[in-house]
Amino acid sequence: KAGVTQTPRYLIKTRGQQVTLSCSPISGHRSVSWYQQTPGQGLQFLFEYFSETQRNKGNFPGRFSGRQFSNSRSEMNVSTLELGDSALYLCASSVSGDRVGEQYFGPGTRLTVT
Amino acid sequence: AQSVTQLGSHVSVSEGALVLLRCNYSSSVPPYLFWYVQYPNQGLQLLLKYTSAATLVKGINGFEAEFKKSETSFHLTKPSAHMSDAAEYFCAVSETQRALTFGSGTRLQVQP
Prior knowledge:
The complex is a heterodimer of chains A (114) and B (112). By secondary structure, chain A is mainly beta. Chain A has strands at 5-7, 10-13, 19-24, 31-38, 42-50, 53-57, 64-68, 74-78, 87-94, 104-105, 109-113. In chain A, strand 5 (42-50) and strand 6 (53-57) form a beta hairpin. Chain B has no helices and 11 strands. In chain B, strand 4 (32-38) and strand 5 form a beta hairpin.
C-alpha cells in the first residue's frame, strides 16, 4: 500500500505570495491532518479534515486554510506569506481521525519564504 | 490544556549504551501518550503509544516507555543504542485522540 505523499517536496516563495501544498492520503484513509514544524515553535497542529469537513483547528491565523476533496486528498493554502512561514509542513492520514496513534505521516513539504 | 516537556534537546550516547529520553506531560484528563521518531528529511514514524492499557509499552526497534502517573512522565528507553537510532525523537500527548501536542524534540546522537 502506498504511503502518504506530499507535493511538492521543496518550495521557495517570496514574501507576500501565496502557496498551495498537496497531500494524498493512504488509500482508504478519510482523515487528513496538517502540522507545521519550525526550529523555533516545533511541531504545531494546523487542522484536520474528515470527509471534506474541517473538524479541528489549531491556533493559526486565517492566512492558513485548507480543504479536502471527495477522494480524501487535501490541500493547504497559505496566503500573504511571511518569513516566519518558512517551515516543514507535514500531513498525516488515518482511517477515521479518531485515533491519532494510527496516523501515518508523509515526508513533508519544505517551504522557504524569502 | 495539554502540554509536553522534553528535557534535553540533545542527548549523546555511545553505541551499546542505554538510551533514556525524558518526557513529562500535563493533561487535565487521562492522556494518550506517544513517541515518534524523525529521520533527516523524513516525516514522523510512530515508535509506541500509551492508551490506558499496560503502563509499560513496547514499541518498534527495541524501544519501550513507561507511563508513570504519579510523576506525569513517559520516558523512552532502549537498553542498547545502535548507530541507526540517531534521529530526533518527539513525545506527544493527546486528550481527544483527534490532535497531537508535541514536545520540542530531543536529538539523539550515537557515538561509535
